[in-house]
Amino acid sequence: MLKYTAIFGLALITGACAYKEAGQPLDGQYFGQATLNNTAVLSGERDFRVELAKRFAQDVPTTINFDFDSAQLDGAARQVLSAQAEWIRQFPEVRFRVYGHTDAVGSQSYNKSLGLRRARAAVNFLVSQGISRQRLEAVASFGETQPLVLTDGRERRNRRTVTEVSGFVAARVNELDGKYAAIIYRDYVESAVVPSTLTSESSLSE
Questions:
Q1: pLDDT digit string (tens) for 109-131?
Q2: Which residues belong to any copy of the OmpA-like domain (predicted)?
Q3: Where are the domains of the chain?
Q4: CATH classification of 42-190 is 3.30.1330.60, yes or no?
């Protein structure tokens, strides 16, 4: 029995050290992070729209709030939308959707209309910051149906718009194929550029 146990153990060790068959997935340790993400997207393991949405939510605030029964943007809302616009300008291939919400005070039909007016106010401000209206949608309003705080009273946190990644500009969606790392991780790619060490002709002539 001991003999067979030893042989079985040796076989496991040998198998662990052997090369994988052709077509088997490569170990992740052989990939850099950008290559790993690019491989995951192209294989369908990771949806690049979801990845962009996560990055947008991590980099900038996605939500602004409103006064009661108002679709006017205050200073804080404008500041957040300005930050969103700056981020959106870096990704001209991406489309965004703004969702409007209200609190529970008032009728459902009125709140649905108010939520849409809030979404349109946010979109109009983004357009004023140089974002193409063709890349922005304010077509959905949840009205009072998706509160952050469950209450029938006035609740500022429920009176909001939320900006999210919705898709890609049709003419540019193919850019997110093999160029995924170059587009999604622009900062990563730029940081990897090695500064030139060549001496210019002007410095040589001096």
A1: 999 999 999 999 999 999 999 99
A2: 53-169
A3: 42-190
A4: yes
